Amino acid sequence: MKVIIIGCTHAGLTAAKEILTNHPETELTIYERNNNFSFSSDGIFLYLKNQVKNLESIFTSSPSKIRQMGALVRDMHTVLNVDTQKKQIRAVDMQKGIIITDNYDKLIVATGANPRLPAIVGIDNSRVLLCKSFLQAQKIYTMAQSSQRIAIIGAGYAGVEFAESFAQKGYQVDLFQSSDQVLNNYFDVSTSEFVVKLLQKHHVNVHLNTNVTAFTEVTDLIIKLSTSSGDDFLEDMAIVCTGFIPNTRLFAKQLKMEKHGALLLNNYLQTSDPDVYAAGDCAVVHFNPTNKSIYAPLGTNAVRQGFLVSKNIYGNFYPYMGTQTTSALKLFGHNFAMTGLTLKNAKLHGLNAHSTVYQGNWRPDYMPYSEPATLSLVYNRDNRKILGLQLHSKKDLTQSVNTVSLAIQNSNTIDDLSMTDMFFQPNFDQPFNYLNIVAQTAVKHEKAAGFDNPRFTTLY
User: Fold this and answer.
1) Does the reported pTM lie above 0.90?
2) At 361, which helix (H) or strand (E)?
């Protein structure tokens, strides 16, 4: 069988390795427009704060390693078009200028995503940088060496992490967010306010409800940022972190897509063409808390989809179990993690959502250095199913969200979690684990509201 993979991102690389390991008889060709494979953009901020010493170490593979496994690797090749009817692609060798035509039996689309560029006048200024690829990371690092004032546009994970990296090195940092809270896709208002105070404590200037409307060159080394608030800011450089859009232009009018342009998939990661599969940031994921397909570009989703595609091109055996978009963040010594929906986002989806909060020590009070933890559990009153969890603490409790992620995937209820068997040892937790306690708080809340009707997954 002839298989072509377009793009060697996390998803493409995972698929390639699995195919070459388990089906070495497959004729596998990979097209990649760069010569660096599977760069982990999540690690850029770690490099900027010297936690990772070598930027090249963030790569998880290379063209030579994949060639050694048996693939025909055409790096530095841009795919010009794909004809899904003819099962044919055309690509250009960017070094030699030669155009080639190739055919496939199965096609795996792993083209990833591109940074989303907001409509800002002057965004093409040389001192305005993006933050996804290896080359972009190099530019950020190099320019920062001769800068003191850095603007960051967008306060999602990337923006907040960049702000921390530069603040710790003594830069003057201005963080701009168009909405009224940072990390609004991940955490509720109270946690976002805590993060803002943490950033401000470390001298990050946080500008909420503020759109950057223009970049204007003042000198070769200074740019002016104009904002919707009417204020102007002089900066040495700016980094745009306003999200991503799927890179799917090759398949316009050929494959079905959702509103963001992400490829729609079935349970086995097939597109609307059964011989074309997709994985990673170019495609949708099934979001279990709402039972709907959404666009959520995350490396965790990419590697899982890449693995499943490598199995399913040989027959539909591995269904995709979906995602809870579980994620975590370490910021100035504090640990944050989440899975599923916040209360606000759950209500925006029309769910009868409620939440309860536990604030208390994560282990017995008699233990030394027992620091407080805050957990917020979101659930659906109609069926008592868990919809999400957020936590933060100076103690690293982030692995706890993986437990709740599994609970959401398995349609567990607050009643299930309230009595789930978890070990007790005073070094680690209380007789009832903090996850038990926040679920028990939810059960008590429902009883007080007149909804004393427990539901256990084993009984229905």
Assistant:
1) yes
2) strand 353-361
